[in-house]
Amino acid sequence: MRHIFAILAVMLLISAPVRAQPKLQVIASFSILADVVAQVGGDRVEVATLVPAMGDAHVFQPTPSDARRVATAALLVSHGLNFEPWLDRLVAASGFKGPRIVASTGIKPRRMGGHAGHDHGHDHGPATKAGTVDDPHLWHDLPRMQTYVATIAAGLAAADPSHADAYRQRGAAYAAELKALDAWAVAQFASLPVAHRKAITQHDAFGYLAERFQIAFLAPQGVNTDAEASADAVARLIRQIKRERVQALFFENIANPRLIEQIAREAKVKVGGRLYSDALSPPGGEADSFVAMYRLNITRLIEAMKRDS
Ligand code: ZN
User: Fold this and answer.
1) Same domain for 138 and 196?
2) Which of 17, 25, 113, 297 is the most buried (most CB within 10 A)?
3) Which CATH number characterizes residue 252's domain?
4) Cα 291–277–101 angle (5° rounding)?
């Protein structure tokens, strides 16, 4: 009998190192961030997202099941810059007391003017006295994403110190991939005259791209796209599209396409497809990673803006 116990003990000792170590359970606030965390974390982490693919984080309404998902996570990663106005209440409701990463920490955001031109039914945070807000959509700016990735890598290393080196290495490799992607984007724009860099989207989420590549995004100023667009404002925008010969008109993956369809019809401009602003496509879709999403947006913008050259 003793022998059997001894053999069992030896078997347990042998099998212990072979058993897979549990992965770090991470919950991220939205799909783009979840992908970045998964890229940096590799197979050491299991990442879930609160706002699903194609979802609008600005107007997300968490459910009790989201609170339960937060409660069981080992690490919570959010974006910050008031992109998730629902998060603090959700965390309080969940009782989560674990470590947190705010990925935009230390990044200087661009300022965006009050509500002019981007009122598409969601709010980009409280305006300051000067009537401007911090633009939260900084994932569209790859130089700023270098800091973002480093913050995530450092946060993962702090939460799971036994794999700290692996997180730092993966973070550096991913940052290098984003740097190469940025160089590719710069090269794409090099052959497109600045005068042709005009595009219309429903949502003023592309201010960082506008800034980096001198694109004029003609957002429907004063037009509220959530079912009550004023006929006057739409008519003004259509006149502007015709006058400035804007050919790049886009749907957005998180917005209702109705207004863009109407503008395209009345201005007789073809829609240049769908841009991904605040969320990824579902897994297996055309923009199911941040890198795929960024590349697709640049490709579609260039293609449509070239039409009027
Ligand atoms: Zn937005």
Assistant:
1) no
2) 297
3) 3.40.50.1980
4) 70
CA 122 to ligand 1 center in whole angstroms: 7
* Four-residue CA torsion sign, 60, 62, 63, 65: positive
User: Which one is predicted more confidently, 102 or 206?
Assistant: 102
Do 218 and 277 lie in a common domain?
yes
CA of 163 to the centre of ligand 1 (A): 34
**Residue 116 domain-assigned (yes or no):** yes
Residues 112 and 29 in one domain: yes
Give distance in angstroms: CA of 136 to centre of ligand 1.
8
Ligand 1: distance of its center to the CA of 254 in Å? 9
Residue 280 lies in a domain: yes
Distance 161 CA to ligand 1 centre (A): 34
Pair 203, 231 in one domain: yes
Q: Nearest to residue 216, comparing CAs of 197, 234, 237?
A: 197
Q: Please, which residues have CB within 8 angstroms of residue 287's CB and are 6 or more apart in sequence?
A: 253, 276, 280, 281, 293, 296
pLDDT digits 0-9 by tens, 199-230: 988 767 899 999 999 999 876 643 333 445 67
pLDDT in tens, 6-53: 665 555 555 555 567 899 999 999 999 999 999 999 999 999 999 999
- Alpha-carbon span 33 to 87, nearest angstrom: 14
